[in-house]
């Protein structure tokens, strides 16, 4: 399997930062680029037009 890019979504909490060593290890193993995606919190849609279907 060829891995060129690793997308690492994180909220930078202490728990999520425990994944750092695994991300680095995988990036080194596959000589891949790491893109860190900072997640601030859940996305809440308060209003949409037209209304979104309920799940």
Q: What's the short version?
A:
Helix content is 27%, strand content 22%.
Fold topology:
Layout: E1 5-10, H1 14-17, H2 20-30, E2 33-38
Parallel strand pairs: 1-2
Considering the chains and any ligands shown, give keywords for the structure:
single chain, 2 helices, two-stranded parallel sheet, alpha+beta
Can you tell me about this structure?
The chain has two helices and two strands, in the order βααβ. It is 27% helix and 22% strand. It is α+β, with helices and mostly antiparallel strands and 55 residues long. The model has no long low-confidence stretch (mean pLDDT 85). Strands 1-2 form a two-stranded parallel ribbon. The chain has a domain at 5-38.
**Uncertain stretches of 5 or more adjacent residues:** none
Could you tell me how far the N terminus lies from the C terminus, measured between alpha carbons in angstroms?
Answer: 36 Å
As laid out across the biggest beta sheet, the strand order is 1-2
Overall body shape: elongated
Summarize model confidence as the mean pLDDT: 85
Category by helix and strand content: alpha+beta
């Amino acid at each position: 399997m060829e891995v060129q890019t690793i997308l690492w979504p994180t909220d930078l909490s202490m728990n999520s930062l425990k994944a750092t060593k695994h991300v680095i290890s995988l990036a080194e193993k596959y000589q891949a680029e790491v893109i860190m995606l900072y997640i601030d919190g859940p996305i809440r849609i308060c209003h949409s037009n037209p209304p979104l279907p309920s799940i």
